[in-house]
Amino acid sequence: GQNIDQPTEMTATEGAIVQINCTYQTSGFNGLFWYQQHAGEAPTFLSYNVLDGLEEKGRFSSFLSRSKGYSYLLLKELQMKDSASYLCAVSTSSASKIIFGSGTRLSIRP
Amino acid sequence: GAVVSQHPSWVICKSGTSVKIECRSLDFQATTMFWYRQFPKQSLMLMATSNEGSKATYEQGVEKDKFLINHASLTLSTLTVTSAHPEDSSFYICSAREGVRQPQHFGDGTRLSIL
After folding, report:
1. pLDDT tens digits, residue range B58-74?
2. Contact (CB<8Å) B101/A87
3. B6 contact residues in A (CB cutoff 8 A)
């Protein structure tokens, strides 16, 4: 079956660093996406990894290990506006659709 | 780039009404569009995948006759909720992608409330 696991909730402090993990078991793999979703809004695209390693984009970085079925999203210099849900999503072998995890609700405290 | 426009943002209507939601890719050609629904504090639930010019592929448990999807062009897909009832009230979100290894870009969503 298809399965994507990520923590339900996390809390971090403004200015700090937080790492949100994601593990997946899917029928094939064609890339992993991270999305940010604020309450009541649609998701916005953050990053895409298809090869192993770290992709850095400003304060956000995403890492992928295909052999381990593992990814993480790293957020640095946290700001209050980073409080949101972060969705891990995997494109399967057919690449016909993307499977989303349940999301990690990140709360930033001052 | 990669802007997806979804209309309307809000719909409030009486039970039994049919509601049409439009999803447009404004600056790219979307070979595939996706329709999701999301209940409060829950994850996205994929309803159907539509490719331009062909019939939509519905996920298990989603009624084809209830949720009509049309993808007539590379920039427009529509979802019609037929004879909507209060249990259809939800947040409906469309997304579109240009190619297989491209990310999905989401519309702003439509909040549907059926009285």
Report:
1. 999 999 999 999 988 88
2. no
3. 42
pLDDT over 90 (residue B16) = yes
Q: What is the pLDDT of residues A52-97, one digit of tens each?
A: 999 999 999 999 999 999 999 999 999 999 999 999 999 886 667 7
pLDDT of B102 above 90? no
Tell if the CB–CB gap between B32 and A96 is shorter than 8 Å: yes
pLDDT at A63: 98
Looking at beta carbons, which pairs linking B80-85 to residues 24 or more positions away fall under 8 Å? B80/B18, B80/B19, B80/B20, B80/B21, B81/B18, B81/B19, B81/B21, B81/B112, B82/B18, B83/B16, B83/B17, B83/B18, B84/B13, B84/B15, B84/B16, B84/B17, B84/B18, B84/B19, B84/B112, B84/B114, B85/B15, B85/B16, B85/B114
CA distances from A42 to B7, B44, B52 (A): 13, 10, 23
Give the three-class secondary structure for A44.
strand
Residues A103, B4, B18, B36: what is their CA dihedral angle, to the nearest 10 degrees? -20
The upper half-sphere exposure of residue A42, i.e. CA atoms within 13 Å in the direction of its Cβ, equals 24
